[in-house]
Backbone:
């Protein structure tokens, strides 16, 4: 199977690339794509750059140009739920865009006509992740992830996102990748390790914990790749 693994930042895919002795490199549409084989699977790996637009480009290219049949996103997020501490893992049950606002026309926040506020991730991939978490004795949280083109570092904004979308974590790429995969009919999975709590300390915490949390997520994603198709 051709599996896409993507992150938003170099730090999110470096721990994955480090696992491979050799890979091919392709430059296309403003990104670098790395391809290699892993067991029975072919992988295409890339980081998109931050935000919904760049991540949508990268996901589209992975599917259309590289023929990805499944997409796994690995990275970090700001925690909303009080249960989530720095370094904890959350897999998205569904994702939404917290910065979409056409409420002036009577629509709910996050809604775009002919779309939906929430896009669900693939349930088979979530079940596989839950099994792996049990096998590895890891606490894997499942919940709603809200995406927007904002680094959230404010208790007020975080509280609004929690109240409006019932979200457990937030980041800047998941929902756009979800939108691409949903529209192309590609099963997808979004995993994030918490790097900060999206409050006044978020900037400092993000810088401190980006690498360590990105590694936690990447390690789990590699385990998933090993077991996809078992
Ligand atoms: N990714 C990790 N932390 C984040 C935050 N506080 N806001 C947006 N994206 C994030």
Residues:
């Amino acid at each position: 199977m051709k599996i896409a693994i993507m992150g938003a930042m170099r730090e999110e895919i470096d721990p994955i690339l480090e696992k491979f002795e050799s890979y091919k490199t392709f430059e296309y549409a403003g990104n670098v794509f790395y391809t290699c084989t892993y067991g029975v699977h072919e992988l295409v790996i890339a980081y998109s750059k931050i935000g919904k637009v760049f991540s949508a480009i990268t996901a589209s290219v992975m599917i259309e140009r590289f023929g990805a049949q499944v997409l796994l996103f690995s990275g970090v997020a700001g925690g909303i739920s009080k249960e989530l501490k720095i370094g904890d893992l959350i897999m998205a049950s569904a994702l939404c865009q917290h910065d979409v606002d056409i409420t002036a026309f009577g629509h709910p926040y996050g809604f775009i006509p002919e779309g939906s506020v929430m896009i669900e991730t693939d349930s088979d991939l979530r079940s596989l992740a839950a099994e792996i978490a049990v096998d590895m004795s890891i606490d894997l949280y499942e919940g709603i992830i809200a995406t927007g083109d904002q680094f959230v570092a404010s208790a007020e904004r975080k509280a609004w996102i929690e109240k409006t979308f019932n979200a457990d974590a937030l980041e800047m790429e998941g929902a756009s990748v979800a939108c691409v995969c949903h529209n192309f009919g590609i099963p997808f999975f979004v995993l994030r390790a918490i790097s900060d709590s999206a409050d006044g300390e978020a900037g400092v915490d993000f810088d401190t914990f980006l690498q360590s949390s990105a590694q936690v997520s990447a390690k789990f994603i590699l385990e998933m790749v090993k077991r996809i198709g078992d």
In short: Strands lie at 2-7, 24-28, 31-38, 41-47, 70-79, 89-97, 119-120, 140-147, 169-171, 188-196. The chain has one domain: 2-227.
